[in-house]
Amino acid sequence: MKSKERGMSKIGVVGAVVLVTVLVFVLVIVLRVVGLAFYAGDQAAVVVEKTVSADNVIYNYEYFKKQYQDIQAQDKKIVVAKQALEDFLKSAGPRENWDFRDKEEQQRLQANLTGLANVRAEMVAEYNARAKMANRSIFMTKDVPAQVE
Q: What is the C-alpha to C-alpha distance for residues 141 and 61, in angstroms, rounded to an integer?
């Protein structure tokens, strides 16, 4: 009987060790899942806190106002540059009669117009990208457009 009891107690000890190991493993997994849920909640709170901080609210409010005004100013510069190019083309006469300085001036005026248009395109792209960001667009007011074309 004693050997039978010893065999049973060895099985009981091994079974207990296996059971404890499984329970610890399950507990670790549960704690990690719970920790992950709390971490996600904490991170969401940090995002909200940073989004509605006074500095961020003011920065984004001012950004949309300033950027929209800058785009409008860029539009005026483009109109002036187009007019300068058109005026030059009218006054310079037929292209076949141009000398080197005329060609150089036309290229300069065209490059200026292209550069202004490229800068405007970048300004508009940045404005529109920020306007689509949920954590920034909430600070846009009615006097600026939701999107600039």
A: 8
